[in-house]
Input
Amino acid sequence: MRKKIIAANWKMHMTQSESEAFITTFLREIGDLDEIEIVILPPFTAIPKVTELLTQTQNIKVGAQNMHWERSGAFTGEISPPMLRDLFVRYVVLGHSERRAMFCETDEIVNRKVRAAYEQNLRPILCVGETLAERERGEVEKVLSTQLRGSLANVEARELLETVVAYEPVWAIGTGKTATADQAQEAHAFVRQLLREISDDATAEKVRIQYGGSVKPENARQLLSQPDIDGALVGGASLDPRSFAQIVQAGVPND
Ligand code: 13P
Output
């Protein structure tokens, strides 16, 4: 049984004081819910504040949205894996489509970052997903296979167990166009099949696969009830503590 994991990707939003207001309201909304693992992904500058506010909670973790793969060096403007560990960060988003498209991140770069994460005991949230043009050309499986195999090259099964994969179709990000539950489930089942091929059946069964792309309180329950959808990576709707809390609550199993 995979514990669902629902993450708030704040992207380039939220000052320290806005983060504080968010966390205060969110904790009140969420109560003592512990069936779901929750991850908050603030911008680097708000990580210490968010971590401090969450010290009393067990199931809410803090993550970063990116990092460099080297431990230190002349990389102006970059943040290293040990620097994130120093801030008690547990998860790190790698290969987000915005970084792939706007900051030229290739699968090779993402792979370096993924392996650097394991070295520092950081858990990658590895993002993969096709563009609209790729979907229309019937290339969804090809794209997912290339991205997943490239990003996870030379990764061992025990490392894969520490990894969360996020399927985020690029055409659904920030557009209000969510993949239907069937479209998402089909892609997730394919990702799990790829994970079997990359590692083994038992490992692939344990890896959690999140869906991302216009997840909202209104569509979360249907998406999260699919057999291979083990969580959500939420952008826009995670900036409002009440709507993010509703999305988290939608992931709680009914029985
Ligand atoms: P939206 O929820 O705003 O579509 O963003 C999804 C995303 O990119 C999360 O990483």
